[in-house]
Amino acid sequence: MSNWTSSKLTLRASGSYDRDVPARLPLAAQRLVIVTGKGGVGKSAVTAALARAVAGAGRRVLAVEVTRGGLGPLLGAGTLGPAPTVVAPRLQATALEPEEALGDFVQGILRFRMLARRLLESTSFQVLAAAAPGLPELLVLHRLLGWVEERRLGRRVYDLVVVDAPASGHSLPLLAAPRTLGTLTRFGPVAQVLARIQALLTDPSRTLVCLVTTPEELAVRETIELHRELAGPLGLPVAPPIVNALPPRRFGRRDEAALARLEATGGAHAYLVAARYQLERRRRALGQLTALRRALHEPAVSLPFLFAGPEAPGGVARLAADLAAAAGLTA
User: Fold this and answer.
1) Spatial distance between the Cα atoms of 97 and 171, rounded to a whole number of angstroms
2) Per residue in 292-307, pLDDT tens?
3) Could you tell me the CATH number of the domain that includes residue 206?
């Protein structure tokens, strides 16, 4: 047995994740939460976890997938359809379909079902609708507004609508649509709808935008730019960023000192290389958290790196527990 293995490194990799989640997610009585971020940062997993956390606290939740992705499987529901489906107690999920959104919008504007049906069946109208700038974003927001305001027997159907929004490059035009289209349409029923949507999006008591990132330079940089745009010119209520997949702290300071001694005497053993990689990965991730905090002047909510992925058994539940702690939710 080598000196390296017999010493056991005195490195006590804990095998557990850090509890770096501060209770700073300002989720109170909002009716709409929009989750977005750079592609690949795990926003669908965060959406699923947040939906489960809020439902677990006793609120009726609708989780909405705007673009086809993995929200359904993460919620244990398979492929989502246009009709809300019960996936857990107090939790339903759906996928926002363009055709359904267009039909809801036309019927809501025209009020007359026969006229709305004839218009929707018109090939010319369908071609015009597909080419109209800003219309897809308006349809999405109008459908979300409908779910937020939906009532049955005088009671809200959903306490919270949680949206797995498109990646940040597409979310910005989506969230800017009421203001952009409002400059073109100042009167009539469309203008009234835009005003209602804008009032919803900019009301911090009803709406919260959550930006998800990973502790990597490109993702953090894009998050900072998006945060500034949403909270600045658009005036939207933006939560502290959610940093997903933070590498765990596996070694303490004494462990690092022991590692340095072994490296000085034992050379580049494969286990030493692996340990040094874990330390460096964690160091760089924390550096990105620092850059994020300094740029936005607020700490981030941190979620752990899940080695088996959020789709593994217990993955979403683990993230949900951390988000519930960050938001101060209780069952």
Assistant:
1) 17
2) 999 999 999 999 999 9
3) 3.40.50.300
